Each structure stands twice: as C-alpha cells, then as structure tokens.
C-alpha cells in the first residue's frame, strides 16, 4: 500500500512539475521572436511530412495604436514549436496523422495566456500544406464593438490557401529561438 501511495505522489509531482496548463507546452517556456516585415518566404515540407503555416491575425494585431507587443507561441501535440510576432506568420513540418495545433500568447500574466489560448485538431497528409490563423472569437468581436476595446480572445481557424498566399505578401515573417 505504501508503494502505491508513493507512486501516486511521484506521478502527481511529475505532472505538476511539467505544468502544461495551456495544453500546448509548458507555460514557463518563452521564445525570443524576430519579425521581418520585408521577408515573405514560403516553406517546403520535409520528406515524408506535411507543412503547417500559422498566421497571427488577432484583433489586437489590428489596433491603430500599438505599444510593444505580445508574441504568440505555437504548439503541436503538447510541445511548443516556435512563436510569432504581431501580424506575421511562421511555418513548420509535421508527420502525417492527427495533430492538435494550439496557440497562446507568452505573457507573465496567467490570465493573458489562458484568455488567448486556442486550439484546433487536424489530420495531416504527407506532402500537403495546411494554413491556420488566429482570429477574434465572435464574443470578442461583439464585446469590442460595444466597448471599443478588444479583449484579445482568439480562436484558431482553417485558412483558405488562396487567402494565405495573399496574406504572405502583406504579413511579416517570424522566426524564434527558445529563451534561455
């Protein structure tokens, strides 16, 4: 009985230590993001994989006055793969199969991370490209028209490939490195 109780405590401690409350990756993981508004590269999927593009297009990206900015982390299947800055995009390769894509703003404020977290499930096929964007939720849009202040709630949505091609020419391209 003692061994069983000890095992439960150890497993609970390990789960707590690997806090993944956003479902995307550990909350303490942060990225240093470099946004290049003049570069608009396209990717090529690695052999045997699919390519995923994620565009940042939240309500906060479209505000007329911008002071500083929050970077958005992107996770796949519970692990962070990178981050992007405002009104920009990133891409990465994934293996074929079902995946859970998610985003969350990196912020010291837990409420900011939780309120801006979004996720979507998709099935990737080898050699294909998939396009997603963060966009304001219907509730966020309704609230901002009443108050004039965006609350930042976003959701991930599939993006039409033709629209993605247009956005690539206007949005900046973001690269990121984990902060040490």
Topology, element by element:
Elements: H1 2-17, E1 31-36, E2 50-56, E3 72-76, E4 79-84, E5 88-94, E6 97-105, H2 110-115, E7 118-124, E8 129-136, H3 138-147, E9 154-158, H4 161-170, E10 172-178
Parallel strand pairs: 2-8, 5-10
Antiparallel strand pairs: 1-10, 2-5, 3-4, 3-6, 6-7, 8-9
Keywords:
globular, 6-stranded mixed sheet, alpha+beta, 180 residues, disordered N terminus, Immunoglobulin-like, 4 helices, single chain, 4-stranded antiparallel sheet, 37% strand
Describe, in plain words, how this protein is organized in 3D.
The protein has a six-stranded mixed β-sheet with strand order 1-10-5-2-8-9. Strands 4-3-6-7 form a four-stranded antiparallel β-sheet. 23% of the residues lie in helices and 37% in strands. With 180 residues, the protein is an alpha+beta fold. It starts with a helix and ends with a strand. The protein has a single domain (2-178), classed as Domain of unknown function DUF5300 (Immunoglobulin-like, Sandwich). The chain has helices spanning 2-17, 110-115, 138-147, 161-170, and strands spanning 31-36, 50-56, 72-76, 79-84, 88-94, 97-105, 118-124, 129-136, 154-158, 172-178. It is built from four helices and ten strands.
């Amino acid at each position: 009985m003692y061994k069983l109780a000890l095992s439960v405590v150890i497993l609970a401690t390990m789960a707590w230590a690997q806090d993944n409350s956003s479902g995307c990756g550990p909350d303490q993981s942060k990225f240093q993001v470099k946004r290049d508004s003049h570069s608009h590269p396209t990717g090529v999927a690695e052999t045997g994989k699919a390519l995923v593009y994620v565009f940042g297009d939240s309500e906060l990206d479209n505000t007329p006055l911008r002071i500083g900015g929050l970077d958005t982390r992107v996770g796949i299947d519970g692990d962070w793969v990178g981050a992007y800055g405002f009104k920009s995009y990133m891409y990465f390769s994934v293996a074929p199969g079902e995946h859970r894509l998610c985003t969350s703003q990196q912020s010291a404020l837990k409420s900011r991370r939780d309120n801006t977290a979004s996720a979507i499930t998709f099935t990737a096929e080898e050699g294909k490209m998939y396009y997603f964007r963060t966009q304001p939720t219907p509730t966020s849009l309704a609230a901002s028209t009443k108050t004039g202040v965006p609350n930042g709630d976003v959701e991930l949505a599939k993006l039409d490939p033709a629209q993605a091609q247009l956005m690539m020419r206007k949005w900046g391209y973001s690269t990121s490195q984990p902060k040490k």
